[in-house]
Amino acid sequence: MSVPRPAAVIVLAAGEGTRMKSQTPKVLHEVCGRALVDHMLAAARDLDPERLIVVIGHALERVGGHLAATSPDALAVVQREQRGTGHAVRTVLEEVGTISGTVLVTYGDVPLLRTETLAGLLQRHAEEGNAVTVLTAEVPDPTGYGRIIRDDAGAVLEIVEEKDASPEQRAIKEMNSGIYAFDGMLLADAVKRVSTDNAQGEEYLTDVLSILRRDGHRVGACVAADFVEVEGVNDRVQLAAARKVLNLRLLERHMRAGVTVIDPASTWVDVDVRIEADAVIHPGTQLHGATVIEAGAEVGPATTLTDTLVGEGAVVRNTVADHAEIGPRPASAPTPICAPAPCSAAGPRPARSSR
Questions:
Q1: Catalytic: which of 19, 80, 253, 352?
Q2: CA angle at residue 229 from 37 to 80, to 5 degrees?
Q3: Which domains does the chain show, CATH number per domain?
Q4: By the 8 A CB rule, do 128 and 218 touch?
Q5: What is the pLDDT of residues 140-170, one digit of tens each?
Q6: Residue 19 catalytic?
Q7: Where are the alpha helices (DSSP H) in 7-165?
Q8: pLDDT tens, position by position, 246-261
Q9: Are 103 and 187 in contact (CB under 8 A)?
Q10: At what angle do helices 60-70 and 36-45 cross, to 10 degrees?
Q11: Strand, helix or coil at 173?
Q12: b or e along 81-97 (b: 16 or more beta carbons within 10 Å of the residue's beta carbon)?
């Protein structure tokens, strides 16, 4: 079965993210050259949704301005009071109306979530004809997560938060990611019936699952292959962990495409960096922005390039360059026997050299 095109992807990105302890809104913190929310939007965009919607609230002007500049295809819906995930989705539906078809709900702070995983969720949702399908994951330590309670047939009975779980339920390692595929028509009705009868007085999207099940609809689940994908970024420690995972993914992609990376542990690349086959990246190298390394070039060690073009066969060592253009190595040039002196290039006029 081909993956069905979602009617909408709703990205929840209205929270303050107080644990980041930053003046920068959480969803605008960068990982590998791209804001957290932009990673999620890129994954969602590859599903070719009919609508791409982002719920914003905290730091409204900054987040809204960022989205207008980087994702003009996304509709920003304002949640002026952050009263829970259920309230956020209800706010969307009150503004755009009922959405017929499959509605995927995800978050702006899960930069490691792959399009393939979301596609698997959509496919499972369609195959089983569920009212809602939740993306889950098996985690080594489920402490702090809601647990997935299934019946003997594998259907989801409920999601139990840890504070409400029995000792037997706490032993369950399948956790709720908070990412769902909904039947849009059923969602529109159920989200209106979400209660605020909880300690926080908020509307939780989790409650929609139990409402739909009480109405006689099937609630299913799709287990993510790697639990790391669904882990959100809530503080600087998790931000660094996500950067490490994503950086290794990017380097592996480059290496499988014919690039030699001598030491992946000390090499850092941004998402939009392009490296051609037979290039060699030495230890201690950082490649940022839209840097391009052409075929056969050698970069590093101890080199940081930002928005820089390195020509075919060029050798760039112990260099800091910003918006530079380093020409290709001439066919007659001898092999360098020592590293060039450190240099820095920046500004509107690119520095040029041939090595």
A1: 19
A2: 35
A3: 8-230 (3.90.550.10), 257-355 (2.160.10.10)
A4: yes
A5: 988 888 899 988 887 788 888 888 889 999 9
A6: yes
A7: 36-45, 60-70, 85-96, 115-128
A8: 999 999 999 999 999 9
A9: yes
A10: 40
A11: coil
A12: ebbbbbbbbbbbbeeee
Tokens of 46: 């590859």
What is the secondary structure of 283-323 as a DSSP string? SSEEEETT-EE-TT-EE-SSEEEES-EE-TT-EE-S-EEES
Q: Which two tokens stand for residue 199?
A: 């300690």
Which residue type does 56 have?
I
Q: Which two tokens stand for residue 10?
A: 């709703």
What tokens were used for 206? 């989790």
Residue with tokens 């030491």: 263
- Cα gap 103→89, rounded to integer Å: 10
| The two three-digit tokens of residue 227, written as one number | 């639990």
C-alpha dihedral, 166 to 198 to 150 to 234, nearest 10°:
-90
Picking from 243, 264, 265, 242, the residue whose alpha carbon sits closest to that of residue 253 is: 264
Phi, psi for 277 (deg, rounded to 5): -60, 145
Q: How far is CA 205 from CA 56, 193, 208, in A?
A: 17, 11, 5
Q: If residue 182 lies in a helix (H) or strand (E), which one and from where to where?
A: strand 174-183
- Using the structure block, give the residue that is written with the tokens 């050798």: 315
Cβ-based neighbours of 189, under 8 Å, separated by 6 or more: none
What are the tokens at 243?
């950067």
Give Cα separations from 32 to 26, 85, 101, 295 (angstroms). 15, 28, 34, 22
Half-sphere exposure of 209 (CA within 13 A, CB side): 25
Lowest mean pLDDT, pick from 49-58, 158-167, 316-325: 158-167
Other residues' Cβ atoms within 10 Å of the Cβ of residue 101: 16
